[in-house]
Amino acid sequence: MRAKQLPFAVRAVSFMVSAVALTGCVDADLAQLEGTLADIRQSPGGQPPVMAVALPESADLSYLYSNERSPFLPPEEIAQGSADRSEGSLAPDRQRTPEPLERFSLQELRLVGTMRMGGRQVALIASPDGSVTSVKEGNYMGTDYGRIAQINAQEIRVTERVFTQPEGWQERQVSLVINENNE
After folding, report:
1. Of residues 159 and 14, which shows the higher confidence score?
2. pTM of this prediction?
């Protein structure tokens, strides 16, 4: 079967459209572009000029602590591992069962009241989970192995055990006070 030929008029119109489209691609300013490129090619090449910036003179400084330990290196005691967490007379007993208030830091716990029960002073401690727990002297609270040393009418005193690298286990005294403004 022979392919159908387009009529002559359709072929002539498509030829004219193609010729007009190709004529639009010819730019009359190509001569000007060629002139600009020729000027650029003839200009002197090479390195761009060097700009020198004058820097102010600086004075020599002496470091007064050059004989001391570098602040960027660990102290020798830490590097040598002088203190051991499991040793020392103040090391906490890790075998005992933790008490409920040891899950919270002392900053999260709040003393809400004290009372005398059976001849002993008892304190009421509010924890962040919303519960109130009664404690007596000798109970533990806080994340730093704090043990209640004394309960007064307005405060309780807690002895915490904290570990520092050079000294090992140390005791510190902390107090929780009833704050009537912070209900």
Report:
1. 159
2. 0.52
